[in-house]
Specification:
- It contains five helices and four strands, in the order αββββαααα.
- A four-stranded antiparallel beta sheet has the order 2-1-3-4, with no helix packed on it.
- It is α+β, with helices and mostly antiparallel strands and 222 residues long.
- It starts with a helix and ends with a helix.
- Strand 3 and strand 4 form a beta hairpin.
- Helix 2 runs antiparallel to helix 3 and helix 2 packs parallel to helix 4.
Length: 222
C-alpha cells in the first residue's frame, strides 16, 4: 500500500516541483497528418491539436492563425455587429419607454444620436479605406505597367498584392454601400418613430407649408 501511494503521489509532486508536462502536437501538412513532441516554426500558425503524452487525451485545440484579409473581414463583421446591436437596443428602448421617459421630441431624438454617430463613423471609415486602397492599387498598377513597358517581368509578390488589394477594395465598397443604405433607413425610422411619438403624446404635427399659407391668407381676409 505504501508503494502504491508513493506511485500515485509522485506525478503530483513532480508537477508541484515545476516539471514540464510533455505533450504531442498534431497538424495537417500537405494532406498528411503529422504529430511530434516539438512544434516546428513553420507549423506555429497551422491549426493543431495538443495531446497529453502521458494520458493520450486531447488537452487543447488551436485554430490556425488568420490571414491579414481574414482579420480585416473579422473586424468588419464586428463593426457590422455593433451597428446591428445598437439598432436593436434603440428600438427596444424606444418601444418600452416612449411614453414614460421622453418629455419632448428633443429627448426622443437624443436616443438616436448614438446610432447615428456609429453609422456615420462607419461610413467615414469605409470611404477612407476605399480612397486609400484605390490610391495604393493605382500606384501598384502603374509600377507593374512601367515594368512591363521596360520589358521586365512583374514579380509574383507584386501580382499577388495587386489582386489582394483589388479584392479588398471591392469588399470595402460593398461595406460602404451597406452603411450608406443603413443611414438612409435610419432616417426613415427616425421620421416614423417621431410621428408615432406625436400620436401617442397627442401632439399635432405642423401643417404642410401650403396649408399654413392658406390658413394665414384666410385669417387676413376675416
Amino acid at each position: 500500500m505504501l508503494l502504491l501511494g508513493a506511485a500515485i503521489a509522485s506525478p503530483a509532486l513532480a508537477q508541484k516541483a515545476g516539471a514540464p508536462v510533455k505533450k504531442l502536437y498534431c497538424w495537417n501538412e500537405n494532406g498528411q497528418r503529422v504529430c511530434s513532441d516539438a512544434l516546428p516554426a513553420d507549423a506555429v500558425n497551422r491549426a493543431r491539436v495538443e495531446i497529453s503524452a502521458k494520458s493520450g487525451m486531447r488537452t487543447a485545440e488551436v485554430a490556425r492563425a488568420m490571414s491579414e484579409e481574414e482579420r480585416a473581414q473579422a473586424a468588419s463583421d464586428e463593426q457590422q455587429r455593433q451597428v446591428d446591436q445598437a439598432a436593436a437596443d434603440t428600438r427596444r428602448r424606444t418601444e418600452q419607454a416612449m411614453l414614460m421617459s421622453y418629455q419632448s421630441e428633443d429627448d426622443l431624438r437624443r436616443v438616436f444620436n448614438e446610432r447615428t454617430s456609429i453609422v456615420d463613423n462607419s461610413i467615414r471609415t469605409a470611404r477612407y479605406n476605399v480612397t486609400s486602397l484605390r490610391e495604393g492599387l493605382v500606384s501598384l498598377l502603374q509600377t507593374a505597367g512601367d515594368r512591363e513597358l521596360d520589358g521586365k517581368p512583374v514579380a509574383p509578390a507584386m501580382a499577388d498584392n495587386i489582386r489582394s488589394r483589388h479584392r479588398e477594395l471591392l469588399r470595402q465598397r460593398q461595406l460602404q454601400a451597406s452603411f450608406e443604405r443603413q443611414r438612409a433607413e435610419l432616417d426613415v425610422e427616425i421620421t416614423d418613430i417621431t410621428r408615432r411619438y406625436r400620436e401617442l403624446k397627442g401632439v399635432e404635427t405642423a401643417p404642410p407649408a401650403a396649408d399654413a399659407g392658406t390658413a394665414m391668407a384666410e385669417a387676413r381676409t376675416k
